[in-house]
Amino acid sequence: MVMKKRVKKKLRRDKILRKAVLCFLIREHHGVEQVCLAKKSEGKEERKIGEGCRNGYGGGIEKGENEKDAVLRELWQEAKVVARASRLVKMGMGYFDNETGGGHSFTCRVSIFTLRTWEGVPTASDEMLDPEWYSLDQLPFEELMAADVTWLPLLLSGKKIIVHANYASGQMALLSPLRIIRVKSF
């Protein structure tokens, strides 16, 4: 008689993030504008928002930080690039309603920036894997979070926006249509 060893899979709790930043690195390469998108790694203890999907670089705003300080810290931690706060351009605000696996709701307010000048080459990290450059007209939609498919092309085309998305648990599906408002400035 063969006994099978049972492997207990550790349940991960959902990460709850209320204030965050997101930054998209944009470059011109052989006359074509490109954006760097990396794949969010899987959390060991917590299920991260957007894990397994391609996105820009970012995360939570820590106590005592302003938005730009948080972006600069996240760019270094996740991509090993260095930038100046004065080069960051705020292009959007996202209000992402989320639901945890336990049925609790929370809204994450995300300040969204673009950056066209930095030092270093985006490199994989524990947080963000496999950075790749994509032409702005050939984004990997099948690898993006559900809401990003709609609002990201607008933002990358230079439009300043406010987006409101209502995600189901796991952030892989939307519970209602996106609301997007174009604005002149932030």
CATH superfamily: Nucleoside Triphosphate Pyrophosphohydrolase
Count of DSSP E strands?
Answer: 11
Our measurement of the CA-to-CA distance between the termini, rounded to an integer number of angstroms, reads 69 Å
Structural class: mainly beta
CATH fold assignment? Nucleoside Triphosphate Pyrophosphohydrolase
The CATH architecture name reads Alpha-Beta Complex
Helix content: 10-25%
Rg is 17 Å
User: What's the CATH class label?
Assistant: Alpha Beta
- Provide the residue-averaged pLDDT: 89
Q: Provide the domain count.
A: 1
How many individual helices? Answer: 2
What is the approximate shape?
globular
What is the H-and-E element order? EEEEEEHEEEHEE
Sheet bearing the most strands, described?
9 strands, mixed
Report strand %: 35-45%
Low-pLDDT windows of residues: 3-12
What does this structure look like?
The protein has 186 residues and is mainly beta. The chain has one domain: Nucleoside Triphosphate Pyrophosphohydrolase (Alpha-Beta Complex). The protein is 12% helix and 39% strand. It is built from two helices and eleven strands. The protein has helices spanning 67-79, 148-156; strands spanning 13-14, 19-29, 32-40, 46-47, 54-55, 57-60, 89-99, 105-115, 128-135, 160-166, 179-183. Strands 2, 3, 5, 6, 7, 8, 9, 10 and 11 form a nine-stranded mixed sheet that branches. A hairpin with a 5-residue loop joins strand 7 and strand 8. It is globular.
Name a few traits of the molecule.
2 helices, mainly beta, nine-stranded mixed sheet, 11 strands, Nucleoside Triphosphate Pyrophosphohydrolase
